[in-house]
Design brief:
Elements (H helix, E strand, L loop, with lengths): L1 E5 L6 H5 L3 E5 L6 H4 L4 E4 L7 H4 L6 E4 L9 H6 L3 E4 L5 H19 L7 E5 L3 H13 L2 E5 L1 H7 L10 H7 L2 E4 L17 H5 L6 E4 L8 H10 L3 E4 L11 H6 L2 E2 L8 H19 L21 H7 L6 H10 L4 H6 L9
Parallel strand pairs: 1-2, 1-3, 3-4, 4-5, 6-7, 6-8, 8-9, 9-10, 10-11
Helix pairs in contact: 5-6
Length: 344
């Protein structure tokens, strides 16, 4: 069995190399030639998995060590008998802690407390649910918007779910966590455009740690030129090579798509991939987790304690200064980012 894997996915090569030929390649360099005789493909968001890559190959399973799967042509894979496995939820606590660092910084800048703020959470899946739960425990008033969940689970105002327009108009801070989708009943491509940005309160804050394309970058730049809006951006349209440097400069905090980059998040993703492959292929790793990493220890934490400790783990201003100084090195910075530990 041959497995082709992105060389930026840590830990998984060791167990899989015991039972298969494992070829590791830079994600952007995975080409039809490399995957032609592969049985399994393990990728991140940097590898576009569609007919151009997969036509004529022997690939039957694609694992993505990420939450999102917008880089995979799901319909084409389904039509050609290729199973797609995601690592949904793998880095949820890492993103939670990134957003918590942003909240701590923003409220410090505003000299206010959670009890005076309304937080709008757009996309209430693995990440958004955690953000909403912790924010409520810290005293924020929390509004949620997630039409697919609302319809599937019958959620409404009693559970804190409101229409997106209402959430945007009433929130002091909006944090975005939907999966990126361009089709279907509830597409999220450019979910936040000119109309939506116009609804935001004066001096509101916008956090995006989902996908860059969820926000219309040109519309955001237009709004930034006409009204005060505090932007905290980890993801970008056109990344890694075509990010808008004007937006990098104008955001309060600009980071290079590392909200989910924790030791535990990476270990979780590799563990999910290896366990899933083991279940499907009869490999002896159905309980595997990297021995190099201590699993996260989820726990409640008080707002004051979180604010006092978060900068030891997530140095937003340091990362921001690096990207603002050299935005052309976005991908190099990302690849060389020192994975942080999760502490709650």
């Amino acid at each position: 069995m041959k497995i082709v894997a992105d060389n930026q996915i840590p830990y998984l090569a060791d167990p899989l190399a015991r039972v298969a030929q494992v070829v590791t390649i830079d994600g952007e360099g995975i080409t039809p030639r490399e995957v032609r005789d592969a049985d399994v493909l393990i990728v991140r968001t940097r590898t576009r998995c569609d007919s151009r890559l997969l036509e004529g190959s022997s690939v039957r399973i694609i694992c993505t060590a990420t939450i999102g799967y917008d880089h995979i042509d799901m319909e084409w894979c389904k039509a050609h008998g290729i199973e797609v496995i995601t690592a949904a939820g793998c880095n949820s606590r890492a993103v939670l802690q990134y957003v918590s660092a942003v909240l701590a910084l923003h409220l410090s800048r505003c000299a206010t407390e959670p009890q005076q703020m309304t937080l709008g959470v757009v996309g209430v899946g693995n990440v958004g649910r955690l953000v909403a739960d912790y924010a409520r425990s810290w005293g924020f008033r929390v509004l949620c918007s997630d039409p697919p969940r609302e319809e599937a689970e019958g959620l409404g105002r009693e559970e804190g779910f409101v229409p997106l327009d209402e959430l945007l108009a009433e929130s002091d801070i909006v944090t975005l966590h939907p999966l990126l989708s361009r089709d279907g009943k509830h597409p999220t491509y450019h979910l936040i455009g000119s109309k939506e940005l116009a609804l935001l309160r004066p001096r509101a804050a916008l956090i995006n740690a989902s996908r860059g394309e969820v926000v219309d970058s040109e519309a955001l730049l237009d709004v930034l030129s006409t009204k005060h809006l505090a932007c905290y951006l980890d993801v970008w349209e056109g990344e890694p090579n075509k990010i808008d440097q004007r937006l990098v400069r104008q955001a309060i905090i600009s980071t290079f798509h590392i909200a989910g980059y924790s030791l535990q998040g990476k270990a979780n993703a590799s563990s999910i991939v290896v366990r899933a492959l083991s279940e499907r292929l009869g490999l002896p790793f159905t309980e595997w987790f990297p021995t190099e990493v201590k699993p996260s220890q989820p726990r409640p934490i008080e707002w004051e304690q979180m604010c006092a400790e978060i900068e030891n783990y997530c140095t937003l201003e340091e990362i921001d200064a690096k990207l603002k100084a050299q935005p052309q090195n976005f991908e190099r910075f990302r690849k060389n980012y020192a994975l942080r530990k999760e502490f709650f």
